[in-house]
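Late entry, evening session. Most of the bench is empty. Finally got around to the prediction I had been postponing all week. Sequence below, unchanged from the version circulated by S.P.
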Amino acid sequence: MTDRRVRAWWLAAALGVVVLVLDQVAKSIVEHHIVLGEQVDVLGPLKLTLSHNEGVAFGLASGSGIGLIAVTLIALGVVLWLFSRDPARPGMWVATGLLAGGAIGNLVDRLRHGHVTDFIELPHWPPFNLADCGITCGVVILLVIYVREAERTERDS
């Protein structure tokens, strides 16, 4: 494995650990300081509210069984497989680190508590957490990488 590929794996792993730790620390702080359902005004439309999500993302597809754990593990496997194909591709380590850290953060919650702890609330949007932010940003970055690659391929042909 080349130095660039090894470096990309280390960077993705480090970012994933940072996302996981920040997510778990934030959830722990919220769990210890906010009562379930309580809303705390933070800044402008941003509120903190403790809620438990038994669904996938943003409260969708409720049910906290083995099926959701399996889906998470499969999705994580796909992300790691995509990354392994070309880890030195610009931006891939960022997308992978964000996605893996977020997925593992929510998986830890699901395995420990049977639900995911959400606490960030914005108007007209279901509560979410830092892991969800990592997953969302990772998906957006991944899409940008693949769209740019497709445009480049189309332009060159």
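Two things to note before I forget:
Residues 3-33 form the longest helix (31 residues).
The longest strand covers residues 46-53.
Will write this up properly tomorrow.
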